[in-house]
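Table S2 (continued). Query chain:
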Amino acid sequence: MSGGPHPTLPRKRGRAVGHLSRLRGRSAPLAPGEGSAPGGAHAPLLAFLLALAPLAHGADPQAALLHPLFQDHAVLQRDRPLRLHGDAPAGETVHVQLAGHHATARADASGRWQAELPPLPAGGPHTLTARAGASMQTVRDLLVGDVWLCSGQSNMELQVWRSLDARAEIANGDQPAIRLLTVPQAGSPVPQARFPQSAAWQVATPETVRDFSAACFYFARELRKTVDVPMGLINASWGGSRIQAWTSGEALRAGGHPGEDLDVLALYADDPVQAAARWGERWGAWWLQAPGVAAGDRPWDDASHGDWREAPRGLGAWERWGVPELAAFDGMLWYRTTATLTAAQAAQDATLVLGPADEMDVAWVNGIAVGSTYGAGTPREYPLPRGLLRAGDNTVVVNVLDTYRDGGLAGPASAHRLRFADGTAAALDGGWRYRIVPPETGTPPRAPWQSAAGLSTLYNGMIAPLAGTALRGVLWYQGESNTFEADAYAGLLRGLRDDWRARFGDPQLPFLVVQLANYGAPADAPGDSGWAALREAQRRVAAEPHGALAVAIDIGERDDIHPPNKQALGRRLARAARHVVYGEALSPSGPVPRSARREGGAVVVRFDDVEGGLVAPGASGPVGFELCGTEAGSCRWAQATLDGNAVRLHAPDVPAPVRVRHAWADNPLVNLFDRAGLPAGPFEIEVP
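Corresponding output:
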């Protein structure tokens, strides 16, 4: 793939493709302590002068000098240096005052400033003031306590109103010591210094908790039963997001992600039209080497390969077309149509307008890729480079990938068109044809600028604006969107964890990971499971220093990927935090395997972190254990019996077991608990 401009495409800068934020970020925040000077012997005089400043200069009390993180009802991290930052005119001196402490800082050439105040204990409310010249900002009802970042995909995003017993939970939502901040959802190809939309800290009330993350809120509510300090909750989550979108570009490169994808993202920030064309080449290279694709099969160029069929004029979800093989199909379809244009139309600047595609598309016009977007409810608008259209027939080809429930290009056909600079349009309603892509073709690469499915996009838009914030810890609930690449997930999770620890200035930042809940039909025989493999990656990474795991294998739903029992999850996350963060002598996650050894004709698995002993309710012994040989497909169910804090396993069909697996399925049956009610989670360990 060429690294320069496509030979047929003139460069057009600054035009956006897809639905990412159009904002451009300033430089990264100053390093901790840079450009700051704490108040000292002259602090009383400074306080007096600051008090006079509004009168002397006619200051605007609404002036925004502070970053949006610092506003009414916010929580600052206790027992840590308080690093305040914001924007002011270049070269301006900024004075800040909080709880009797003062500091000054000077805005740099880009207008950024940062000041540091000494640590404060838990408490409040406090008032924070910032002044620069004639401008002043006052922040009231500021608390000092523990600040938690809750992040991930839809199960972290899931709101209190969607959880169990929601009506009662909302009615009892008054928690004045818990404060809530929801980061606006935004993707960006470059790191942002501020949120693209307004965001406000809110006191937890029935009105505010309703739409807040249930897992995050229930965690803090439970934790405050034993840690009686204010809790600040920052929710930065996005349904369907992949872990790569939450990781910085630098960390992805360091982790071995293909540099060409990140190069396309960098190009997209300046020239999205050219980036789309280059991405089409990258996507096409994947297609041509994918399993089952015939040599020379280029659906975006011609329709000479494959079984192209006439699509219903209404389009819409393909599950409703009455085609048996599409009735429950999750995968890819090709769509193709033709637009006949006049010479006058072809000579104009134009945009390809498509209705929503569920859930991801790549679009081509006359064989050149023009855009790609993730988002089931998002209409598409892709600007076309001049010279791409021609008088006569023009082909429009769209590949749509769906991974969950309904899929397809929204209808009716009249919703799709070519829109021209003079305000006219050519409807793409002359008839669409489609072609089904066999599942063995695999999963395509995702355009790096896509919001929830891209590379570093959510880090840039939602985490970068938080960089440098002092946190007590992170709650991470994500992975459903990465189950197709479970083998890579451990490295990706370590990369994100280490990246965030560096960005937030704390190499020991506690990282609490929610293990994926059970979901789908129960397995009737041992076998491979991408969900189980990803849970194992989560378990291993969470077991590393300053980490913990919240097991959810028993609180999921067979038919709902979004289990509503977030109260139980909140309790388990709080328990993990009490051990890892606050040093309580209790097991953080329930029984965990310590070893597996052969003893006579059995394999004995011994467990640690067992509270009160192991139990197997509902059966004469534990279920869901497997013994495996060296070859693929050699795992067999094992008969299991309890032996104190150990489980003794027998599987006559596996004479020389080398591995033990427990709960190894998308939706396994589990009944091994300790007397605290915590389950032994999924795992795979070797038998020496």
